[in-house]
From TrEMBL:
This is methylated-DNA--[protein]-cysteine S-methyltransferase. Belongs to the MGMT family. CDD domains: ATase. Transmembrane segments: none annotated. It is an enzyme of class 2 (transferase). It comes from Pseudomonas peli.
C-alpha cells in the first residue's frame, strides 16, 4: 500500500528515484504523471496516488505528454541514447566527431555533449580517449613492444602516449612498473583492519577490511604493476595518525596524499575533502556543485582509494539514508556517529 504522505513529498521534491514506484493523478486535469514530472505542482486535494500507469489508466486518467509515465522518462531516454553513443565510440574504427556522433544518435551536438557529460563526467572525446587508454593498459603487459600495444588499442603510433605526463611511462607499465615501489602497513582498528600504503609522493591508499590477507589482495589489484613492501616502522607515524582520526575525528590526520584518478574523480574527491567534520552532503548536492550527475558522483565516491582521508563516508542519499559505501554501511555509520559527537558537544 502506498504511503500518501511520502508520495506527496516525493512529488513536491520531483524525486526521480521514486519514478517507477508509483504515479500520481490530478483530478482537475484528468492526467497522471511520474513523481519527477517538471510540470507545476498541483493542489494536494486534487491528487491521488496509484501503484503504476495501468492502475491510473484504469481509474480513467490519461498519461502526461511531458513526463511519459507509461514508458521511459525523458531522462531515461537520454540514458539510453548516451549508452548508444558509448557503444558507437567503442566500436568505431575511427572515433567520430561530436557532430557525427550526434547525427547518428539523433540529438543536437550541444544536447548530446551536455547529456553525455552529466552521465559520465566526461565529454565524448575524453570518454573515448579514456577507453582507448584502458585498452592500452590491458595490452601493455603481454605486448612484444609499446608500439604493438598502441596499434592494438587503436592508436596510430606511440607519440600520443608520451604527450601527457603520467607517474609511469608506457614502457615502464609494459614491464609491470618495475620503477615504482609502494610501502604498506596493516593494523587492527575499531572498524576491523586498516591498510595504509604510500608511494614516494604520499599516501596512495587507505583501505578497510576484516582480513589482512584480503586487504593485501585488494592493494595488489589496485596497484598491480607496483612492487609492494611491508614497512611497519616507516609508516608507523602515519598509521598512528589515521587510527587516531577514527577514534577522535577532530584530530584529522595531516598526511601528504598521492591521489590518483581521472580528472573528474579528483574533482569529486577534492569536493569530499571540503565537507566539514560532523556534516554530510547528498549525491545530488555534490552533483549540482560540480555541474555533474548524482550517478557520476556516486561512481567517483565508490572508486575512492583513500577511505577516511578523502571522506566519501560523508555523502548520503537524498532521502537521508546512508546509501552505499565501498567498505560497508556498518563502517560508514560508525564513522558518521563518531564524527557527530564533537558537534553535539559544541
Amino acid at each position: 500500500m502506498l504511503d500518501a504522505d511520502k508520495c506527496w513529498q516525493a512529488l513536491c521534491d520531483r524525486n526521480a528515484t521514486q519514478d517507477g514506484r508509483f504515479v500520481f493523478a490530478v483530478r482537475s486535469t484528468g492526467i497522471y504523471c511520474r513523481p519527477s514530472c517538471p510540470a507545476r505542482r498541483p493542489r494536494r486535494e486534487n491528487v491521488s496516488f496509484h501503484l503504476d500507469a495501468d492502475a491510473a489508466a484504469a481509474a480513467g486518467f490519461r498519461p502526461c505528454k511531458r513526463c511519459s509515465p507509461q514508458g521511459q522518462s525523458p531522462a531515461e531516454q537520454l540514458d539510453s541514447l548516451v549508452v548508444a553513443a558509448c557503444e558507437l565510440l567503442n566500436t568505431s574504427e575511427q572515433p567520430p566527431t561530436l557532430a557525427q556522433l550526434a547525427a547518428r544518435i539523433g540529438l543536437s551536438a550541444s544536447h548530446l555533449a551536455r547529456a553525455f557529460k552529466v552521465r559520465t563526467g566526461l565529454t565524448p572525446k575524453a570518454w573515448s580517449e579514456a577507453q582507448r587508454r584502458a585498452r592500452l593498459e590491458q595490452q601493455l603487459p603481454a605486448a612484444n613492444s609499446v608500439l604493438d600495444a598502441a596499434l592494438n588499442a587503436g592508436y596510430s603510433g606511440t607519440r600520443a602516449l608520451y604527450q601527457q605526463p603520467a607517474p609511469l611511462s608506457p614502457a615502464q607499465r609494459r614491464k609491470q612498473a618495475a620503477g615504482e615501489q609502494l610501502r604498506y602497513s596493516i593494523a587492527p582498528c575499531p572498524l576491523g583492519h586498516l591498510l595504509l600504503a604510500s608511494s614516494a609522493k604520499g599516501i596512495c591508499a587507505l583501505l578497510f577490511g576484516d582480513d589482512p590477507a584480503a586487504l593485501l589482495s585488494e592493494l595488489q589489484q589496485r596497484f598491480a604493476a607496483a612492487e609492494l613492501h611491508v614497512d611497519n616502522a616507516g609508516l608507523g607515524d602515519s598509521l598512528r595518525q589515521a587510527l587516531a582520526q577514527i577514534s577522535e575525528p577532530q584530530r584529522a590526520a595531516q598526511l601528504p596524499l598521492d591521489i590518483r584518478g581521472t580528472a573528474f574523480q579528483q574533482q569529486v574527491w577534492r569536493a569530499l575533502q571540503q565537507i566539514p567534520l560532523g556534516q554530510t552532503r547528498n549525491y545530488a548536492e555534490l552533483a549540482a556543485q560540480l555541474g555533474s550527475h548524482p550517478r557520476a558522483v556516486a561512481r567517483a565516491c565508490a572508486s575512492n582509494p583513500l577511505g577516511l582521508l578523502v571522506p566519501c563516508h560523508r555523502v548520503i542519499a537524498s532521502n537521508g539514508s546512508l546509501s552505499g559505501y565501498r567498505w560497508g554501511l556498518a563502517r560508514k555509520a560508525a564513522l558518521l556517529k563518531q564524527e557527530a559527537e564533537p558537534s553535539r558537544e559544541q
